[in-house]
Amino acid sequence: PALQRELAAAYERVGDVRGEVYGASIGDMTGALDSYHKALRIREALVAANPHDVNNRRGLADSCMKIGTQLQDTTDAARGLDYLRKACALYQQLATEQRDNSDIRDYLSRSHNELGMALQNWGNPAEALKNHREALRLRKELLAVDPRNDLYRRHLAITYWDIGQALMRSGDINAALEANRNCMDLCVPLFAENPTNIKDRARVAISYQMDGEYRALAGDVAGALESFRKKLQLDEQNLNDDPANAQARRDIAYSWSRIGELLAAKRDYSEALSQERKALEFCEKLSADSPRDVHMRYRTAIVGGLTAELYAELGNREQAFVASGKVISLLRELPDDPADSVHSGLRGQAYLHLGAAQAALADSKKASASQEQEHWRAARDLFQRSLAIWQDMQQRGILTADNVPKLDKTVREIAKCDAALGSKE
């Protein structure tokens, strides 16, 4: 059994290097899952042979959590949710039996966080918050006993930013900002104490990201830009330290894309386009390297759609057409699961950007009368596709608060198209 446990642990380590989600890896998600499943099969056999062994059961829980988390950005996200529920149940059994084992309680809290994030992605912020708050209770208890434990401090910070995201999707932006400030109060001192720790730096970067997201939703574009620019500085350091790290490339691409989006909101289209083009180059390469990463492919569609919109705003008709065509082709290839709140929302955003590109071209002084009509009709069709997604999400009860303004914007844009087309008839 000891040799089998070592072999399972080795497969898990190989999986982490190949493509652990959110971890420093070479970005091979499919390869990582293959390694994690090999570890799982070994651990299942160990538990079957000795169902009362604590180490075997804990190993099995670890595998379930790894696989469940890894599957969340794939087409098997629903199956991943099942793995996470199983992991949580296994850790709970172990924690009940081993009440003085702080390590098991720490992993139980992590399983609640991972399950909460998955539920959040499936449009269930209430259940997500329930799991995050259970993780918060456990992690506060652990830190109260050992207040200088850096691992517990880091894990509590993660719980706070997970709570912030769930609160944001529920529509409570002020509470989300407060939760994120609690996160920063832990992350910033940890990084100051460990300035060479890449993961501590990344956690500070994520806390700036969340601050930027919440400020943007609150209408504070200047504050959001300031936070994302602080994040970008840290992302650049992480990428310089480890250029092969796929997660570092994802992080910097996200920062460029969000800075570009915020600059576009300020009508600084030229600089916004510069940011989006950098983000698009990275996103396309990341998607090509890991085609099973559905989330990154959807992010590529979002960035490509905004790039098309910016080309159109700047009057670059041909480049807008090329960029739009790529996004439309990508959206046709991508799996469309209406029950998936996150990816449905990204699909709706992509069509919203594509519609905005056509509307900008229709408004362009370079367009002839017939081209103008053609652009308005195309814009209306794309906005209608976006609206159909938002309305379906609303009917399913998975339209999160951060997406409600996008639904409202889509309705307004369709009205503009109708008015423009009506005036030409």
What can you see in these coordinates?
Among the domains are: 1-118, Serine Threonine Protein Phosphatase 5, Tetratricopeptide repeat, CATH 1.25.40.10; 286-425, no CATH class. It has helices at 2-19, 29-49, 54-70, 77-97, 102-121, 125-145, 150-170, 173-193, 198-217, 221-241, 246-265, 269-289, 294-313, 317-333, 341-363, 369-396, 404-424. The radius of gyration is 23 Å and the shape is elongated. The longest helix is centred in the C-terminal third of the chain and has 28 residues, at 369-396. Helices cover 83% and strands 0% of the residues. It is built from 17 helices and no strands. With 425 residues, it is an all-alpha fold.
Features of the shown structure:
17 helices, 425 residues, mainly alpha, Serine Threonine Protein Phosphatase 5, Tetratricopeptide repeat
